[in-house]
Write a structure and sequence with these properties.
single chain, mainly beta, YmcC-like fold, 14-stranded antiparallel beta sheet, globular
């Protein structure tokens, strides 16, 4: 799930150390935004065959290969472009089974976030893991950075529970995920910021069309709850509904978020996928 820029919005699907310093290399060439299109057309029957996906196995989570690059367009509640997120595979590392732990593959992703004017806002790193035919996306992606904005110059300890995405999906419920951020100073705990993902339900497949092509996707509906608790008797809560469309051999293709009252919040969709080099 890619990042957004406003405090009231989520942190995604994909994109996303969450508080790292921004860099803006003079030689960097920003990506070009793709105009938004009517979302109704995104899930219409495809006019062309679906885009070929990468291998669906744990050696290549989401079909990713070394150097592969994913570009996401971030759209606001009016379906207008407000930025881009670019995820690039930095490394893919297989890990052998150890004792009772199964073998797994780890993918390190470099994330670059741009605003609506193509100005670089932040660089981050995230990790995907794949084991026993399931990809787990980094639980830190669940954070809405706006929730930590009022805790400037504090310490943050992250405790993520990663979100699972099966390579061979079947309709029905899916496990949730969670991110707990303990905010503290050198001498005292200040607050706890928790994002919980629950009520995940998978259905599909169905065709989803974005500027990157047409994909056979599975739909995952879920409930996101954000809680900031400074004291046991004082907490701020908000709830959003999220719909993710993902293709096992591609990854997240489109994410739609709505407020608790059903009003659109924002969207992230895949607009470009550049293949890397398979080992």
């Amino acid at each position: 799930m890619p990042h957004s820029f406003r405090p009231r919005q989520w942190g995604f699907l994909l994109a996303l150390g969450l508080l790292s310093a921004c860099t803006r290399p003079d030689s960097a060439t920003p990506p070009v935004a793709v105009p938004a299109a009517d979302s109704a057309a995104r899930t219409a029957a495809p006019a062309a065959p679906p885009v070929a996906a990468g291998p669906v196995d744990c050696a290549h989570p989401f079909g990713l290969t070394d150097g592969a690059e994913l570009t996401y367009q971030l759209l606001n509640e009016k379906n207008k472009p407000e930025g881009l997120q670019v995820l690039k595979v930095a490394s893919i590392t297989p890990h052998e089974a150890a004792k009772k732990a199964p073998a797994y593959t780890e993918v390190l992703l470099k994330s670059s976030l741009y605003d609506a004017s193509n100005r670089l806002q932040r660089n981050d790193e995230y990790v995907y893991q794949c084991r026993q035919d399931t990809v787990f996306t980094d639980g830190r992606l669940l954070l809405d950075p706006g929730l930590l904005r009022s805790f400037r110059d504090r310490r943050f300890a992250f405790e993520p529970i990663h979100l699972p995405w099966p390579n061979q999906p079947t309709a029905g419920p899916l496990p949730g995920g969670k991110l707990t951020v303990q905010v503290s100073s050198p001498s005292v705990d200040i607050a706890q910021v928790v994002t919980s993902v629950s009520e995940r339900k998978l259905s599909g497949p169905q065709s989803v069309t974005t500027p990157a092509g047409t994909f056979q996707c599975y739909k995952v509906e879920s409930r996101y709850e954000y809680v900031t608790q400074a004291r046991s008797d004082m907490a701020r809560r908000s709830v959003k509904r999220v719909v993710d469309f993902y293709a096992p051999g591609v990854g997240i293709v489109r994410t739609e978020m709505r407020d608790a009252d059903g009003e659109p919040d924002h969207v992230a969709e895949l607009i470009k996928r550049t293949a890397g080099t398979a080992r």
